[in-house]
């Protein structure tokens, strides 16, 4: 599978944006006391002079969704697997989206599963997968589903990262 540039009107881009929006809405609806923001909006508000290109570069490092909980900022990178067997992982994103407070959230065509994987775990794990080309790695979905260090679902993600949220139940 060779390099394909980002095209906002492609099926993959549209499905990815829809998944990102779904994650964002579910977070907002499930945890109304926490302010979730799209990364583009967050950085654009901080610096209105940022161009779309600059925001795209920031997004490669900071992900799609951000929020603060207990004075700590968290970042979520939404990845949507279009196929039933593989997913593409952008190499620039893989190298830049890493930190103790950064998590990947995978979604899958044909079901509502959401799997969260810490960036340190995922970047180390995927470093062992050969690059398809300079732009991406092809990740078999069985690797995502079979990963021991994953969190399934938004509620489990939020309660494992922020145990005091579960205490209110």
> What is the element string, with H for helices and E for strands?
HEHHEEEHEEHEEHEHH
Q: What's the CATH topology label?
A: Trna Endonuclease, Chain: A, domain 1
The biggest beta sheet is recorded as: 6 strands, mixed
Helicity level: 40-55%
User: What is the domain total for the residues?
Assistant: 1
**Total strands:** 9
Low-confidence stretches are none
Q: What is the CATH class?
A: Alpha Beta
- The residue-averaged pLDDT reads 90
The spatial strand order of the largest sheet comes to 1-2-3-5-6-9
Radius of gyration: 16 Å
User: What multimeric state do the chains show?
Assistant: single chain
Number of helical runs? 8
Report the sheet-strand fraction: 25-35%
Q: Helices and strands: which structural class?
A: alpha+beta
Measured distance between first and last alpha carbons? 46 Å
CATH architecture: 3-Layer(aba) Sandwich
Short description:
By secondary structure, the protein is of the alpha+beta class. The chain is built from 8 helices and 9 strands. The protein has one domain (11-167): Trna Endonuclease, Chain: A, domain 1 (3-Layer(aba) Sandwich), CATH 3.40.1350.
